[in-house]
Structures are given as C-alpha cells and as structure tokens.
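pasting input
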Amino acid sequence: MSRSPLPVSRRNLLAALGLGAGAAGLAACGAPNGSADGAESNLREGFSQADLTVPSEYEGRTPILFWAPFTGTNFEVLATQFAEFNESQDEIVAVAESVGSYADLNQKFTASLQARTVPDIVCFPELQWLQFHQSGALAPLDGYFDEEWNLDVYIQNYVAEGKAAGETYVVPFARSTPLFYYNKTRYIEAGLPEEGPETWEDLAAFAPELAKIEVEGRPLSAIAFGPDAWHGQADIWGFGGANATQDFQVTINDDKGVEWLEWMRKFIHDDGYGYLAQASGTDFASGLAAGWRGSTASLTGQTAATEGLFEIGTAYMLSKEGEQKQVPTGGSGLSLVRTDSQDRQDACAELFRFLAQPEKSAAWHIGTGYVPVVQAAQESQEVKDQVAANPNYGVALSQLENARTADYPNWDQGSVTEIGAAMGQVFGDGADPKQVLDALAATLQETLDDNREDYEAVAFEGWN
Amino acid sequence: MSITVRSPRTEPAVPSGPVPPEEPVGPSGGDAPMRQGRSERRRRSPQRRRRARRDALLFGALIAPNLIAIIVFSYYPALYNIGLSFFDWDFVAPSPEWVGLANYTDLFTDAGFGQVIVNTLIFTGVSVVGSLVLGLLLGSLLATKVPLTGFAQTMAFAPHMLPGAAVGILWLFMFDPNYGLSRWVFSLFGAASPAWTTTSDWSLWAITIAYTWQRLGFVTVICYTAILDLPKDLYEAAALDGAHGWKLFRHLTLPLLSPITFFLSITGIISAAQAFDIISIMTSGGPGVSSSTLSWMVYEEAFQKFDIGTASAAATVLLVVLLIITYVQVRYGDKKVNYDS
C-alpha cells in the first residue's frame, strides 16, 4: 500500500526548505485558517486516531476509521462496501462506525477535535464542512488525484461544493436532492394523474379530491410538512425568490419569500389541506398524508416501508406555475481529517479511490437512493435496470438537471436552524409570514455579515 | 490552675483504656485561653501529634476522591463555562475571540430570550407544583392501604424508571392528533384533538404534562414512604380530639411532611430547570421558541448553532437563577419546615 503521491512529498520538502508563505500557497495549504496551528502539510501533530476495533483477520494492516453519519439500511450498504474494500487488498483495513445523524457527527467530531483524538474520515453535509476546514481540521485531497481518480469522474453539480480557495477538501459520496413523494395508490383512487403534481397550483387542485378519502376517520391530507430549511430553499426558489444574493444580501423577506410562506400558511390554516407533522415521513408511510418532501436518500427505505401498503410516486419538487424549478444539492462527501499519520491518510485516499469506482457508486445508489455521484455509474447497466424496475429512481436522477448549490444562509448550521424555526412558526402556528421573515432576515443578515470574510476566502466556484 | 469542663453526656461511666488529657479552658476574659492553648500544644506528645497527622491524612485520603470529582466535574466546568461566556467561539476555531459582555447584552436584548425565561418558569413551576400536589395525594391514597397497594406502587413509580427519551416518545404518540390517545379522548366530546406538539398554543403544555407525569412516580413513592413513617400516636390523639379526613391531612400530615416537601421542591426545581430529553424528543423547543427552556436553549445554541459564547452565557444565567431560587428556598422556606417529627 503506502501510496505517497509526489505532490505531498514535494509539499513537505518545500515546507522543510522554509520557502515561506508563497511556497505554502503553492503547496496547496492556502486554507483561510488552515495552517493556524502551524501545520503545513496534511499532517497535524498531536491529533491521534480515535479508538477502533479491528477485526482479528485484518490485524497488522493500517487501520483507518470513518465516523459515518448513516444508520439503518444506508449504514448496512456502507458496511458491505467497506467489507469489499477490505477484501480487495491486504495492507489497509477500513472501519466504519455509525455515529447517528449529521448533527451527531457534528457534535462528536467537534468534541474529538477538542480531545485531539479524531477519526481519519468524516462526511459532512453540503457546505457545513467549511467550519472545520476553516479551523484547519481537514486535509486537501488534490495531491492524490491522478488519471484514474480525479474530480472529472464525478457529477459536476457536486464538485465545486467540495472546494475552497481552489483546493479540494471533499469528494462527492452520499449526495442527494429533495424530492416530492406522493401516494400513487391514493392518487389513482381519487382519479388524479398518476404522475403526481408539477406545481403548487396542481397540489391545491388535487387536495380537495384527496380530502374526500377518509383515513382514520379524517380527510386525507395532501401533504405533511416538515420545517426543513433544505425544503424551504427549494420552495423559495420555486416562487422566484432566494434566501440571499451572491453579494451577501439576505432577500428571504422580499415579496417572493413572503408569497411563498403566505401560500403555505393559507394552504394549511385557511384551506386545511396540509399540516405541520411531527414526523412527516412517518405520517406519509403510514398513509395519513398523501405527500411529503424527503431526500432521494429516503427512497429505498420508504419504498421498503410501504411495500404491500401502497405504491409510492415521486415528482420533482414543486414550484409555482411559471417559475423555474430548482432544488438545492444535499447530502455529503468524504473528507480527510488531518492527523499525525501519513500512512493512514494515504490509506484513506485509497478507500476514496475505491468508492469512486462506477460499480461501487452504482451499488451505493441502488442500495440507498443517494444519487450515483460518479458519472460512469449513471450509465451503468445496474442503474438502468434499477430505473426500469422502479421509475422513482429515474425521477431522482433526472431532477439533477435542476440541482444547484444552496444560497449562503444554508451554508451555516445556525442559520439553517433559524430558517426551520421560522417555517415551523408559519406551518404550525399560522404566524404572519411577513413578520416572521422580517425578524428572520435580520438574524440571517447578521450571521452572513459575520461569515462574509470566510465565505469570500472560499472563492466558491459553483455559482454558475 | 486549670479548670476542666467535661460533658456529663459523653463521659464514660467507667473509663476504659488510657484517659485522654483533659481539655484546659481558662477563665473568661484576657488572653488566657490563647496562652493555655499554646501551652497545651507544647505539651502534646509526639505520639499524639503523629496521630493527629495520621487522622488528617486519612481524612484527606477519604474525601479526596469525592472532592476531586466535584472539582473536576462540577466546579471546573462551571467556571470554564462562565469564562467561555465572554468569548465568541464555534468550538472548532483555533482561538476564541474575546467579546466581553457582548453575549450577555445580546441575550438580554433578544426578544426570544424573554420568552425562553417565561417558558422556563412556567415549565418548572407547573411541573414541580403539579407533581408535588398529585404526588402527595397519590402517596396519601396508597398509604390508606388501597387494594393492590404493591401493584399501585409499582405503577406509580414506573414513570420515574423510564428514560426521558422513552417518556417523550410515549407522549408523542399519545398527543398525536391523527392517531393518538388525545384524538380518542377529544373525539368523545365531538372535538378534534389539538396539535399538541406542533403549535405554540400547546407545545409548552405538552412537554410540561409529560415531564410532570414522569416526575410524579418519584414524588409519590417518596411521599408514600414518608407518610408511613409518621408517628401514629399523633394521629390517634388527633382522632380522639375529633379530627378526621381533610383536617388530619391539612393540620397534621402536611406539617409533618414539610421536610420531605421542602426537599422535593428544591430537587424538583433544579431537575425541571435542567430537563432536556423530553423537550428534545417532543418539540425541539418549537415551534419558534414556544417550548424552548433555558436548558434546551443552551443545547441549541451550543450544538445546533455552534454559538458557544451565547450558550455559555445562557448556561450562566441558568446557574445564577438556580442559585438564587435555592438560596431563597433555603433562607425562607426552611423556617416553615417542621423538623420535630
């Protein structure tokens, strides 16, 4: 094993020669605060590997540890791929430990940085990895790229989100978009189009028909809402608005934003066709609501959960009539944590290379519902067969044409929480959208102003 | 000449073993006691000094584990937290930025914070008083030897044994307006169940009810045990004087139980103000901040927004509020407590 790509060695050499900041820049260590602790390579003294249990048959190999924010089916698929990797060669053993959700990983990794006992690989959603990059926790990957494995192999929608200041810190892995799920069986029963709604106006027209169906003694709701900022991003774009401009101005409380939330408020509280659910996916799967918005990554799990109960249909995320449909990219990618071992970092790159093989990416997609991030995987026979067997996977794939990076406020986890809370006030309480969004905009602007310098340093390449 | 004073209650009738040197006490006034004390120390034998040192070492060794644990796990984090409240930090940036009192200023000028304080007071007050009143009633009822007392005791205590997360999930099901127990109860009256956990009108009450239910078991069992321990002769005397039922409870049971209710109210307030799991499971503090308490706010600011300074400032406020409440309780409530029983 021990792949030691030349650029890394050169970096170390240049650093050793003391060529200063200019050389460090050339050596791809130009993260905003990436060298705040004085480190000038992928290595970080004093940051040792967290405890892991290596299966006895793999003892003696270089162990690498991935704290995976996946559970259930998704973690099982991941474990299978890791087992295949461990069987594929004889010098590395990759261990995946489920830490729960993205939020759990965020907390655990933060604590591990304080304790200086870290995993080798992490997997953070969208652009929330930036805070860890800015603290110098992640290592650049460009030095490992070659003819066989580089950014060109991936779907390009997701590549720019892994880069900062021209360097790559995340390669796509578990990427997704939000998707509109509906109960096709109920739609057919109500005499509605099998392909589901295309616009919010469609849903408003379908809702009275769905409400004629009684479930547990109550009219069937057209949709169970969740107060999720990710969905909110697709919504506000679908009404022609935006959370913020690329010039760092928050616009969530502009007329388009108010129109979006007012439409939702009326649909829920005046018309009574939807509601704020505690767990919208659960309500949908149990048949209480005829629709919900979820990640493409829920597709396999939801399909299994509703098998024998009803048929799931999927559609693009809804927009207002006449407006452009757009969805934020989501999910996460693989990052290398700066630790004290070059061997382990090289081993991690080997794992990333393995997972970027088209057949592995296709298997991950089929097993979970996450998008096949490797371009060649989309063309593979396995994926084509899967789409033929279940067209919902095809909807998830074709919606990628509408995928783009979320606005700046969604880059910050605190702002994401604030947006979700604001949506909850309107969805749950029927609060006045204008008042809610005005208060929210002030908070978001303050945070954005605080983050502006860091975001500018990222020199994000993905806006166009 | 020295005067010795010996307590007749501690003096052994027949001294056994070596008789300890008598403690000299000088006449009142002047510096005689000090001089005599010094002379006494001079007179201490090397053997006694060794024993005193050994006792001191033993004392230190015995309290050290607890003392170290308290310092490391209680006082140090509390002081560290207070320190962090003067910084702006996201937990992962290489160095926190000193901001002075800005976090406190932001906190107290934030409209939402007032709501969080009110929520905390309502949640704490209602759950502590509610569990105390209901626990006293249930404890009294159990003490009257109702049929299946053992079973009733177990049932009453069971909620306290359940983890908060399980209690939260259980009540989420019961409160669900689509298929929960709440729906069934309201349907008996021809009404629709409120959306307990997803509307501001009800969310705080939903978590308060669930938490009160969870604590009720503990309070009930403590009260029940305390009632069984009350002196029977007082009740017999009161009964001879014609006291029955409510009068007995009001004028005898309640005063006699005052040490227990005092203890339960202090621990209840501290526990309720720190409640987290039920809030996390049932409402996540929402919608908006309608069911957010100080303890939830600390978590949300620290681990969802990664604003450690604000979280630490809120935690410091919580600490101060709890210290004040506990001080007031001990200072004034203690006078109302009857320890004679």
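fyi The interface with chain A takes residues 90-95, 172, 176, 178-179, 187, 195, 197-201, 286-290, 300, 303-307 of chain B (CB under 8 Å).
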